[in-house]
Specification:
There is one protein chain. By secondary structure, the chain is an all-alpha fold. The chain has three helices and no strands. Helix 1 runs antiparallel to helix 2. The two termini are about 15 Å apart.
Length: about 90
């Protein structure tokens, strides 16, 4: 089983469920980051809201940083539910 193989999600029903859950988390994080940046940008038009806008930019940045973490977590989850014997044999070659 290769990491980041797009066909991985089709291996079994369990793989499809794992993919769907992580994709949902990825989408929520992506949406949260986008909303944080849009609202933070609007806040920068008003001097009294600039500090809150800066915090929203930081939150948006952290959410964007979480996106690759979600992808790696999904791949590690695939490894946990995959065929370990097959994986071990491929790495021994």
């Amino acid at each position: 089983m290769k990491l980041f193989n797009p066909d991985q999600r089709k291996r079994s029903h369990k793989h499809k469920r794992v993919y769907a859950r992580y994709e949902l988390a990825y989408t929520f994080v992506d949406f949260g980051a986008a909303v944080s940046f849009v609202i933070g940008s609007v806040m920068f038009f008003f001097e009294s809201w600039q500090t809150a806008g800066t915090w929203l930019f930081l939150i948006g940045s952290l959410l964007f940083a979480a996106k690759p973490t979600i992808r790696v977590a999904r791949e590690l989850h695939y490894l946990r539910i995959g065929d370990r014997k097959d994986l071990a044999e491929r790495y021994e070659e």
